[in-house]
Amino acid sequence: MGPGDHLYLIDGSGYIFRAYHALPPLTRKRDGMPVGAVSGFCNMLYKLLEDTKAGETVTHIAVIFDSARKTFRNDIYPDYKANRDEPPEDLKPQFGLIRDAVRAF
User: Fold this and answer.
1) Which residues are within 8 A (CB) of 22 and not within 5 positions of it... i.e. 6 or more apart?
2) Which end of the chain is more exposed for a tag (fewer CB within 10 A), N or C?
């Protein structure tokens, strides 16, 4: 990165759950795969990139997702995210599609 570059750091997990809970269920017609969170996530990311300040072109984005595994945070604080429910069953298959979409951006 250099002068004039702009990096956006995006809470991917936050975007996913926001999109999932804000929109009605949506499925692909050909196979019934749930895609509502994918669609909402992509729309939110696209809108963020479109709505940047005049003269501030986004040159880099980094989308960060929560890990399903134990991390150092669990070692520091054993109750880290202990009260979180499992993701809904119709959201789980969308995680991979969202990661693919992020790579495409």
Assistant:
1) 40
2) N
Kindly report, residue by residue over 22-65, the tens digit of the pLDDT: 999 899 999 999 999 999 999 999 998 888 766 678 889 999 99
The reply to whether 1 falls in a domain is no
Alpha helices in the chain (DSSP H): 12-22, 36-50, 72-76, 94-104
Enter the pTM of the model: 0.82
Element (H, E) at 64: strand 60-64
Q: Give domain status of residue 2, yes or no.
A: no
Neighbours of 38 (CB within 10 A): 24
Number of domains the chain is built from: 1
Residue that is written with structure tokens 């990661």 in the block: 99
Q: How far is C-alpha 73 from the chain's CA centre?
A: 20
